[in-house]
Write a structure and sequence with these properties.
Helix content: 55-70%
Number of helices: 29
CATH architecture of the largest domain: Orthogonal Bundle
CATH topology of the largest domain: Neurolysin, domain 3
Number of strands: 7
Strand content: 5-15%
């Protein structure tokens, strides 16, 4: 999961006041306007969403003062303030230098950044219909704001001057990297276009901003309105923990006495794995995989078509053949062809494994007397039965040892061993939170006691919270303008248990918990001077989080933290052995559902979008890829928020696999070391070269410093239990 910094559009709010003025004389109107303008100005300056963060820990967000009525004025005023800073930089009469241009840009927008921290909370963690109305109003204004910066000719010429001077007379390494990233960022956003093209470019971005908002809100709307309710006689096969949580979810929705399967991945996945009711599995499956594709007001197919057309038109203004060529130029892959080469190297082995898995499942179904053919809604259910048969491994038995509080302590232990971090709960009430379930810890250096930052955890699913799991920084580490300590968050969608019940999660969910914590550690370990250097390279930033997943199955974590929630007994060695023996089990399913989405993402952006029918294109493309009928894409196109709710992962969803090549290769570096996954020397290199630098050095160079060579795909193929052939050992 990556971090996307949102920037935003200018609007003073005074035009509305002028329109409302109804005084009879011009003088009265002027006086009234001045008075109201002063009021607006004062309100903006005292808006709690804009004001400087105060309190302990270097200042903290005033989450206890969040009022939706303050949001729009805060964003609009924040944009005004930043544009004023931009104008001052652009119109500086002094010759352009790193200090008066690049460093000045790095300092700009503090108020707006604070406002967007609150905006992101409403957007991701506590959305409401009222917020979505404001979000729709702000989207085009935010786009206008972005364009006013990226298309500021005077500003770009100053940036270009500093860049060209730095090519002749290199600056210190971190400054050189900042100049490069800032210049490339502006150039990629059309700063060199002529005025006519710039105008069209800005108009396209404005329309896209509204489409992205619509797309994401349509998904959320379908997740909220489609809930499958069960009666007591329909619970066969479901674990007790799921039944209790489903009863609570139904009661929370005014359906006491029933059981709710919510339209989120965490709920759907468990139900499809355990429910004996095949017709209900089909219903839940269809409900989940039809999000954004129901032919109603929340249907996303028209949004996809328009997004693809606009993206294609925009990059052609800059001379690119397609969106993928433009997007990947500053990624590790560099070209869509290299990304496709990696995916095509793995795809045949993945779908071949699916055939083996389906054959095993069909045999189990046949042996039980079920006269069925395996369908997508059967895959998880029969995979679980095959798992038990082949490896004597029961996923529900594993869950008894995966209690959320213990897993959280396992995260802290891992961070302490690798990063020398200590996590201490903050006193209740000393740090404001936006929702009662959110908990906060202080992060310090174990040796020196130095304050590093705060870590916020928002663990449970609820209405208005987007599905999935993610990490976000509320404040990133920098030192150039006074040291800024880190405020990092992790967000999950575990099913909240009934009162007094433990939170038990699946092995896959535990892996995801470690994964997202890897992102938080990336934020917390940052050691860079300038904010721009905290930005991520999309096909690299997932590597850090995927690597951290490996520590869940280490002996030190298992023996200390994977304890039975009732007896306190450590997970027995026999069960650990079963988990490890089954580590490549179901890799056909896991790899194929992911790769199908990644391939579809790239194919969408390499195709001619004129007149495209997304539903037909998805169906025909998957047929050409020989997509197994028993599996669907992990993210079907109408719900593919990574790609169509914004641009962070557009033509970049392949990045998880690119990062996994690095992950598998780096994991072998630990496996080969004397101290294994807790080897101090390898861990020190990990932090020094892969985590602390963030984007202050080229990712390929950083990896070579850690490993002593480029990564190879061989380790990935071994990891997944796929055959390693001569054409899969290309260096990446």
């Amino acid at each position: 999961m990556g971090n996307q910094i949102i920037t935003a559009g200018k609007k003073s709010g005074l035009l509305a006041l002028l329109a409302l003025a109804s005084c009879t004389s011009v003088q009265t109107q002027e006086n009234s306007t001045k008075t109201q303008a002063a009021v607006v100005q004062k309100q903006a300056e005292t808006n709690p969403l804009l004001t400087k963060w105060t309190g302990p820990y270097g200042g903290i967000p005033a989450f206890d003062k969040m009022k939706l009525a303050d949001l729009k004025p805060a964003i609009e005023r924040g944009m005004e303030l930043q544009l004023a800073e931009i104008d001052a930089i652009a119109n500086n009469p002094a010759p352009a230098t790193f200090e008066n241009t690049i460093e000045a840009l790095e300092k700009a927008g503090e108020e707006l950044n604070r406002a967007f921290t609150y905006y992101s909370i409403w957007s991701s963690n506590m959305s409401t219909p009222e917020f979505r109305t404001i979000q729709a109003e702000l989207a085009p204004k935010i786009s206008d704001f972005d364009s006013k910066i990226s298309q500021n000719e005077k500003l770009f010429q100053r940036i270009k001057t500093v860049y060209q001077n730095a090519q002749k007379n290199p600056l210190p390494a971190d400054q050189q990297r900042v100049v490069q990233l800032v210049y490339e960022g502006f150039a990629m956003e059309g700063a060199d276009l002529d005025n006519t093209a710039k105008e069209r470019y800005a108009a396209i971005n404005k329309e896209l901003s509204s489409l992205y908002t619509s797309f994401s809100n349509n998904i959320l709307a379908d997740e909220e309105k489609y809930v499958t309710y069960l009666t007591k006689d329909q619970l066969s096969g479901l674990p007790e923990s799921f039944v209790k949580a489903a009863a609570k979810a139904a009661a929370d929705r005014g359906q006491a006495g029933k059981y709710a399967v919510t339209n989120t991945r965490s709920s759907m996945d468990q139900f499809l794995t355990y429910s004996d009711e095949r017709s209900l599995r089909e219903k839940v499956w269809n409900t989940y995989y039809s999000r954004g594709d129901n032919g109603d007001a929340s249907d996303n197919n028209a949004n996809i078509a328009r997004i693809l057309q606009l993206r294609n038109e925009r990059v052609k203004l800059m001379g690119y053949d397609n969106y993928a060529d433009w997007r990947l130029q500053n990624r590790m892959a560099k070209t869509p062809e290299r990304a496709m080469d990696l995916m095509n190297a793995v795809w045949p082995a993945a779908i071949a494994r699916v055939k083996e898995e389906v054959a095993d499942m069909q045999a189990v179904a046949d042996a039980s007397g079920k006269k069925i053919t395996i369908k997508p809604w059967d895959y998880r259910y029969y995979a679980e039965k095959v798992r038990k048969q082949k490896y004597d491994l029961d996923s529900d038995e594993v869950k008894q040892y995966l209690e959320l509080n213990n897993l959280t302590q396992a995260l802290f232990f891992t961070a302490g061993e690798l990063f020398n971090f200590k996590f201490t709960p903050v006193p209740a009430g000393s740090v404001p939170v936006y929702q009662e379930d959110v908990k906060v810890w202080e992060v310090t250096d174990k040796t020196t006691g130095e304050h590093i930052g705060l870590w916020y955890l928002d663990p449970f699913a609820r209405q208005g919270k987007r599905s999935g799991a993610w990490a976000s920084p509320y404040r990133s580490h920098t030192t150039f303008n006074g040291k800024q300590t880190v405020l990092a968050s992790n967000n999950s969608n575990f099913i909240k248990p009934a009162p007094g019940e433990p939170v038990l999660v699946s092995w896959d969910d535990a892996i995801t918990f470690f994964h997202e914590f890897g992102h938080a550690l990336h934020f917390l370990s940052s050691n860079v001077k300038y904010p721009t250097l905290n930005s991520g390279v999309r096909d690299y930033t997932e590597f850090h989080s995927q690597l951290l997943e490996r520590w869940l199955s280490t002996d030190k974590v298992i023996n200390q933290f994977l304890k039975h929630h009732k007896t306190g007994e450590v997970m027995p060695a026999s069960l650990v052995a079963k988990i490890k023996n089954a580590s490549t089990f179901n890799q056909g399913f896991a790899t194929t559902e992911y790769l199908a989405s990644a391939l579809m993402d790239m194919k969408f952006h390499l195709a001619d979008p004129a007149g495209i029918d997304p539903d037909k294109f998805e169906r025909e493309t998957l047929e050409k890829l020989n997509m197994p009928n028993e599996i669907v894409m992990r993210h079907r196109s109408p719900q593919f928020g990574h790609v169509f709710s914004g641009e962070g992962y557009a033509t970049a969803y392949y990045g998880y696999m690119w990062a996994d090549v690095l992950t598998a290769d780096a994991a072998e570096a630990f496996e080969e070391a004397p101290g294994g996954f807790y080897d101090k020397e390898v861990a020190a290199r990990l932090v020094k070269y892969l985590f602390a630098p963030r984007n202050s050095m080229d990712p390929a160079e950083a990896y070579r410093k850690f490993r002593g060579r480029d990564a190879k795909i061989d380790a990935l193929m071994r990891d997944r239990g796929f055959p390693v052939t001569t054409n899969t050992s290309n260096k990446k």
